[in-house]
Amino acid sequence: MKNWLAAVETAVLGMVILRMISGLIEITAATLMLRFNAVDKAVMINASLAIVGPIILILTMSIGLVGMADKLSFSKLFLIGLGVLLILIGVRR
Question: Which of 35, 44, 56, 92 qualifies as a FRET site for 1, CA 20 to 30 Å off?
Fold first, then answer.
């Protein structure tokens, strides 16, 4: 069991942990929606998830880019960062 965990890159492990936290937040929100059983409260919970999603995306991409920084040229890192920025702009508007 320890052997496979030691072989996992630190950046990948950080990304996995963030995604697991994000999933737990989503499951908790769905459970709260069922518990409250009210459309207005479900909409408020869903709106709070709209904040969590982009934050997890940015953090996960940042960890991945830092992990790949030594393998990519500056121009490729710039293009990836620009792509993430365009995704965020597209989602916002």
Answer: 56
Burial of 86 (0-12, 13-18, 19+ CB in 10 A): exposed
DSSP secondary structure letters along 25-69: HHHHHHHHHHHH--HHHHHHHHHHHHHHHHHHHHHHHHHHHHHHT
Task: Give the tens place of pLDDT for each residue, 60-84.
Answer: 988 988 888 888 888 888 898 898 8
| Contact predicate 9/68, CB 8 Å | no
Residue 78 CA to residue 54 CA, distance in Å, equals 19
If one counts every other C-beta atom within 10 angstroms of the C-beta of residue 79, the result is 12
